[in-house]
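Journal club side-thread
Mid-discussion, someone asked how the predicted structure for our own chain would compare to the paper's figures. Pasting it here so we can look after the session.
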Amino acid sequence: MIEALHISKSFGENKVLDDVSFLFEQGKTNLIIGQSGSGKTVLMKSLVGLLEPDEGDVIYDGRNFFRMGNYERRKLRQEIGMLFQGGALFDSLNVEQNVMFPLNMFTQQSPGEKLDRVNFCLERVNLAGRNKLMPSELSGGMIKRVAIARAISMNPQYLFCDEPNSGLDPITAGVIDELIKEITEEFNTTTVINTHDMNSVLMIGENIAFIHNGQIWWSGNRHQILHTTNQALNDFIFATELTRRIKV
């Protein structure tokens, strides 16, 4: 599990996060939702150490990230998998090379061991045998699945997904949601997903934090969110659903 404790972060006079505390549970899909500018991206970046908060702590199973030295942080980062918005594959590398990239960087495994792990991860995301394809040959959904395979190649304890359904049609987005949920359960990971997709919330939202004006205004699960009386959250749900219908 990951504990965010009293996280505050400002940029100049703009206070983006204001005393945010939340428990991200192991083996569950933990969703951070909120409008653009609400602070959800800053929170995720703070959790993984891309931003240093002005105040507060981030605890990974008893280990305080911001009180670690560089060596300890590097070791902890090897337990973290990241799925970036858009996939962020290396265009000059094929599928196999993209998935193998973290293994080359962080492990001393033999070439055969690395290839075995790559093939396992590709099979897990239903892309067995696609090793030699280049990113330019992949659909949007396939790019996201390769990115997931790369994110789990190090068998991470913690998986972060930034807008995993961005740019995908609803059917493909549902496939990605289900895949992330299956991997979370199968490997008992602490999965944190930054999203504004209400379909994702209603499909896989097991532990949800709604951020509004830099604070957590509501928390619960996908069943409870349908019955909330929180006006800011209801406004967000309505606006998100209206936007989705207009796009469709």
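Post-session note: The CA atoms of residues 32 and 194 lie 5 Å apart.
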